[in-house]
Amino acid sequence: MNPRRAALFDGIEEGGIRASSSYSHEIDEHDNERAIEGLQDRVILLKRLSGDINEEVDNHNRMLDRMGNDMDSSRGVLSGTMDRFKMVFETKSSRRMFTLVASFVVIFLVIYYLTR
């Protein structure tokens, strides 16, 4: 037998190989347990994160619903205002009154900016 090979396998018997195999199996099980614990921690973290995302999405949906309702009410107010403007423009005397008021507003703004 080669001296290096004899030194390498010196003292290994059948029982020693089995003990080494069982020790390796225990190490593998220990590594697996640690990996499982790490995965459990990640799953818990992901569950918490997905719950936070769900809560944030719900908050944004409520906010968008409120904004939609506000836009609908604004649209109603604007359509009422536009109807009133249409009535003002339909009559000639009202059109003259509107022109007079608009002229005064423009003159006021010009004088305001010139004196400022």
Verbal overview:
It is a single-pass type IV membrane protein; Single-pass membrane protein. The chain is an all-alpha fold and 116 residues long. It has 3 helices and no strands. It has helices at 3-8, 14-90, 92-115. The longest helix has 77 residues, at 14-90. The protein starts with a helix and ends with a helix. 0% of the residues are buried.
Write out key terms for the chains shown.
mainly alpha
Summarize the structure.
This protein has 116 residues and is mainly α.
List the helices and strands and how they pair.
Blueprint: H1 3-8, H2 14-90, H3 92-115
Quaternary state of this entry equals single chain
Helix content: over 70%
Give the number of DSSP strands: 0
Radius of gyration: 42 Å
Which secondary-structure class do the elements indicate?
Answer: mainly alpha
Outline: rod-shaped
Reported for the largest beta sheet, the result is: none
Low-confidence stretches: 11-19
Number of separate helices:
3
Strand-residue fraction?
under 5%
Sketch the topology as an H/E string, one letter per element: HHH
Mean pLDDT: 79
Distance between the termini: 110 Å
